[in-house]
Amino acid sequence: MKKIYLLALTSVLFGLLGVNTSQLLAAESARPKQRIENRKPHTEYAYLNNYDVGKTLSDYEQNISCYPSKSNVKAKIYQTWIHRGIALQKLKKYQESIVCLDLALAVKPDLEQAWYRRGIALSHLQNYRQAFVAYNHALKLNPQEYTTWYNQALTLEKLGVYNEAISAYQQAIELNPELYSAWYNRGQILDRLGKTDNALLAYQKAIKIKPDYYQSWYALGNLLARNHQTQEAIQTYHQLLEIAPDEYRAWYNQGNLYLQSKQYQLAIAAYQKALKIKPDYYQAWNNQGAALEKSQQPKEALKYYSKALQVNPQYHKALNNRRRLLLKLSNLGN
């Protein structure tokens, strides 16, 4: 494997006011990345049809054991173990699923689909090292399966092996160029590693393939904001909010950019949108207070600092802002 390269994420800070304008983590990191679990039937063995899968699930809900009765001679066939393993995964019985898959592999060690499914089960159990081994076995048997490369890339990402993860995503993309989530995930790693130009291209490619993929719009906006491309970032957030108007973090980030560029009324409007969606968003209460203060509305600003402290009494930025503004108003009164 190549060496591991780690880079800390950077954030955007603003002004002398206690204002939190650091960009939030990209939406996909707040929402766990999804593995590709189901794929087209493999010629290695016959998949169950929908009726049989439903019946299998019903049969195993009561008795989840992978050990067949003595009379069940057919259960010795590796296909049966595979079907049981898949059924158990659909029931989220991942450890039991591994037992079935191992029984299939004991009969047929070169069964690519069993190694693939074993990797999925281990990933769900957060045993990423063993998941990597399972996916690696599957790829040796079938290197042309993009779903395995994609899931292997997710696993490598979890292990912090970012350059290897980029390579695995690239393999998935070469096999399926329209796999927009691979472009997006690849962009996120490149972004972490400071390769912003390549990350930008990856995000843009994901958007080109799937224009309503708001996670990529969000990540692109964050990248542009960190690169001080303020107007481009604002426009990107605007595009995102056309697709996902309830994405409060985009409203908040857009507000931060308006605040940085001294467009205080637009900042206030953006923060209000974020707060309407998420009323306990204390950072937005504080930052709206800062925008009001900057627009010469100190008494209104004081209300927003106080509201931020109602939501989070330990939020030191709002606490400092409120104290400072109270002192300023007191001096003006004298």
Polypeptide structure, described:
It is a single chain. This protein has helices at residues 27-30, 50-62, 78-90, 94-107, 112-124, 128-141, 146-158, 162-175, 180-192, 196-209, 214-226, 230-243, 248-260, 264-277, 282-294, 298-311, 316-333. It has 17 helices and no strands. It is elongated and about 85 Å long. Residues 1-16, 22-30 and 41-57 have low confidence and may be disordered. With 334 residues, it is mainly α.
The fraction of residues assigned to DSSP E strands is under 5%
- Judged by helices, strands and strand pairing, the structural class is mainly alpha
Please provide the ordered H/E string of secondary-structure elements: HHHHHHHHHHHHHHHHH
Helix content: 55-70%
Low-confidence stretches: 1-16, 22-30, 41-57
Largest sheet: none
How far from one another are the termini? 69 Å
In DSSP terms (H or I, runs of 4 or more residues), the helix count works out at: 17
User: How does the overall form come out from the CA principal axes?
Assistant: elongated
Determine the oligomeric state from the structure: single chain
Count of individual beta strands: 0
- Radius of gyration, rounded? 26 Å
User: Overall mean pLDDT score?
Assistant: 84
